[in-house]
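Problem: given the chain below (195 residues), write out its structure.
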Amino acid sequence: MQKPKAKIQPKAKMQPKAPGEWTTGLWGCFSDWGNCITTLFCPCITYGQIANIVQKGKTSVFTEARNYATIMYFTGGCCLYSCFSRSKLRHKYNLPQSPCSLPDCAVQFCCELCALCQEYRELQGRGFNMAIGFDLNPTDEDGMINAASINQVLTQINTLTNQDGTTNAAPASQVMTQADTTNNHQNDHHDDYQE
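Solution.
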């Protein structure tokens, strides 16, 4: 007797999520002074970090920052370039157009620096470490921060073991030896200046 073949059911379409909320407002620039100052004097760095994460590491922070700086220097139209990343970010997290339901390009055009700071804070608020880029942040297939991956990485770091189950202290001792060598080398130079 043959078993009846199971019918492959089509995947149900996902219903759109209810609109999310931005973790901070457009005018909250001063809640992160470091990013505020960086964005004020070198917005290309902030944009590069945002674009790298929003594009799931397909381009480097350097490449995006360079592109932004080039467009800013030669045309002044960097707001048009950066509005695409804002749109991707909004769609990824189902965020409303804000403030006042303005389109992304209008927000970027009128308040470029505040918008970049808000996008940066949004990604930070969702668990991304902006300083290390997309590739080193533990993410799932959708490019979202994955708590299970974070725990897995921490477990791997904390339990360096050999195949036989014994703790492998060699990497830690090598790191300590390198640190001691660096400190001794710095102290040697420090002594030269004191004489």
